[in-house]
Amino acid sequence: MGRRILNDALRSMVNAERRGKAMVELKPISTVMSSFLHIMKNHGYIKDFQVYDPHRVGRITVELLGRINDCKALTHRKDIKARDVEAYRLQTLPTHQVGLCQ
């Protein structure tokens, strides 16, 4: 598992929605995951989420709306120089049309 906590949580949510579940429980948790879920809630992709015992192992229960088609996190990490960041971003990340509509 290691540093793929967010990716595993997003895959669990997508799989639960494909099975028609109304709720999913995510373990382990991180502050990045709760921040990402807050953004998803503001954009209307999930109904609500509750964080239980965040100072220990913790868990998050998410109420799903059925609006998530596919959701992934970028997990590949690569050491690059600061001057090469922009070229790497343009080469690796998807276009601006993919994702949230602004």
UniProtKB/TrEMBL annotation:
Keyword vocabulary terms for this entry: Ribonucleoprotein, Ribosomal protein
An example Gene Ontology molecular-function term: structural constituent of ribosome
Xref: InterPro entries: Ribosomal_uS8, Ribosomal_uS8_sf
Keyword Ribosomal protein appears in the UniProt entry: yes
Gene Ontology cellular-component annotations: ribonucleoprotein complex; ribosome
Pfam assignment, any one: Ribosomal_S8
Top-level taxon of origin: Eukaryota
GO biological process: translation
Family the UniProt entry places it in: Belongs to the universal ribosomal protein uS8 family.
Protein name according to UniProt: 30S ribosomal protein S8, chloroplastic
Lineage: Eukaryota, Viridiplantae, Streptophyta, Embryophyta, Tracheophyta
